[in-house]
Amino acid sequence: MATSDSKFFNIFSLVIGLLVLITILIFAFARAVGHDLQTAKRTSEARYVSEVDARVTGARVAVAGQDNSALTIQPAAGAAVTAALTLPTDGLSTYETVCGACHAQGIGGAPKAGDKSAWSARIAQGQATLYKHALEGYNGKGGVMPAKGGRTDLTDELVKSAVDHMVGLAK
Ligand code: HEC
User: Fold this and answer.
1) What is the pLDDT of residue 64?
2) What are the tens digits of pLDDT across the range 85-142?
3) Measuring CA to CA, how many Å separate 18 from each of 7, 14, 23, 109, 169?
4) pLDDT digits (tens, 9 = 90+) for 63-89
5) Which residue ranges have their beta carbon within 6 Å of ligand 1?
6) Is the CB of residue 105 less than 8 Å from the CB of residue 113?
């Protein structure tokens, strides 16, 4: 490298270095000034204060070593509703939530609800046989009817009223 080149290179590096240093200093100065002013202004602003108040009202804080039993989370009132939904309450809802899965469209060879020709011979067997087949399951020519439609948690009464409902639809 010629001497003039290396001289230029040294000065150039020095200038760049100084500029970088100045940038960092300006940045640090701006942060220092801005930080104090911003925080002070924000925390004294009425809207900020009221919004923070709104967020923390009703907050439940557990304190170590104290009686925190009041903080126990109570099951929401909605939980009881969901439990009631999972078990149908009458023939119609049993049909809609359980039996309809197959019988509404006649899936898997199930006699379609409301289809008179599919049901007439079955109804002719008598109510007792229909109840028995619905409760215990039935494996006929059409397909497999699972016991209680696969919902063994259903009461016999619910299954019977669902049978009555479907028989009613086919009349
Ligand atoms: C997984 C599908 C499926 C579900 C769910 C289902 N069934 Fe069935 N069901 C069938 C099939 C398939 C048949 C036809 C069986 C045959 O004749 O071979 C049938 C037949 C029947 C019959 C006629 C039985 C007979 O002797 O001819 C009754 C009554 C019946 N189901 C009632 C119900 C009731 C009540 C429910 C709800 C609790 C229910 N089913 C849910 C598939 C289902």
Assistant:
1) 84
2) 578 889 999 999 999 999 999 988 999 999 999 999 999 999 999 999 999 999 988 8
3) 17, 6, 9, 87, 92
4) 888 888 877 777 666 655 555 457 888
5) 94, 98-99, 101-103, 108-111, 122, 125, 129-130, 133-134, 138, 140-146, 148-150, 159, 162-163
6) no
